[in-house]
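Folding follows sequence. Below is one example:
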Amino acid sequence: MNKETIQRGTAKETIIRIASDLFYRQGYNATGIQQIIDAAGVSKGAFYTHFKSKDVLGVEYLQKMSKDETTHLKQVLSEIHDPYKKYMQFNTLMKGWMVSTNYRGCAFANMTAEVTDRNSPIRKEAKFHYEAFRAIIRDLVEDLLKSDKKYEDFDVQYVADQFMMITIGALTNAEIYQDTWPYDHAEKALRQLIGEKG
């Protein structure tokens, strides 16, 4: 790998890192290309060498974030071997993550709220992420329902979809209220979803 390739890779990584912080912290529409260029310490030419437009950068940002988030979530969940504990731990993980972001919430939901074009690649990328998120939930629900005969009458897809709605509801309300109480309610709802009293 020659010096020019290393410099290009470093510049691209720096741009994505800086843009990731700005997009998430202050919003996609509020962040301009020039601000990213200035904060990254790169030339305008270097920016456009790697990204033809802000939307192209936005898509790459979401792709990287999706990969990082789903990889991390799968890794953490894989370390929990009891299906019931894994099912319940998911909500606890989301609660801790929300606190760690200072209640900024979901980058994908935040960006799609700012991009109104239904055909935008940014909105499509957000949908891909939510489908990946949904698949993780389905897997852990399926593991739980297979683990005990008392769950044999439950429909996996229904429970998984309800689980996701509960989780997204908790996320949205935690961001709005800047508090963790929605996750406490979500925990009760997740217990009730599998026949417990909460």
Observations:
- The two ends are 57 Å apart (CA to CA).
- The first helix runs from residue 3 to 26.
- Confidence is low (pLDDT under 50) at residues 1-8.
